[in-house]
Amino acid sequence: MENNLQVRFRSFGQYGIYLAFLIICLVLAFSTPRFFTVSNLLTIGNQVSINALLAFGVTFVIITGGIDLSLGSMVAVTGVVAATFAHPDTYPVIVPIVIGLGAGLGIGAFNGFVVTKSKVPPFIVTLGTMTIGRGLALILSKGRPVSNLSDSFNFIGGGNVLGIPFPIIILIVAFIVCSILLNKTILGRYMYAVGGNEPAARASGIRVNNVKMWVYTICGILSAMGGILLTSRITTGQPNAGAGFELDAIAAAIIGGTSTSGGTGTMTGTLIGALLIGVISNSLDLLNVTSYYQQVVMGVIIIGAVVLDSMGKKS
Amino acid sequence: MPILQVSNLTKSYSGIKALDNVQLTLKSGEVHALMGENGAGKSTFMKILIGLIPADSGEIILEGKKLTGSRVNDIQRKGISMIHQEIMSIPELTVAQNIFLGREKEITGSQTGWLNDGKIRQRATALLEEMGVTISPDIKMKYLSVAQMQMVEIAKAISNNAKVIIMDEPTSAISDKEVAMLFNIIRNLKAKGVAIIYISHKMDEIFKISDTITVLRDGKYIGTKGASELDERELIHMMVGREIGSMFPESNIEKGREILSVKNLGKRNSFAEINFSVRAGEILGIAGLMGAGRTEIARAIYGLDKPDNGSIYLDGEEISIQSPDDAIKYGIGYVSEDRKGLGFIPQMSVQGNLSLGSLSKHKKGIFINANSEESVTAEMAGNLRIKSSGLAQKVTTLSGGNQQKVVIGKVLLSSPKVIFLDEPTRGVDVGAKFEIYKLIHQLAAEGMGIIMISSELPEILGLSDRIMVLSKGKQTAMLSREVATQELIMKFAVE
Question: Chain B contacts of A8, Cβ < 8 Å?
Answer without folding.
Answer: none
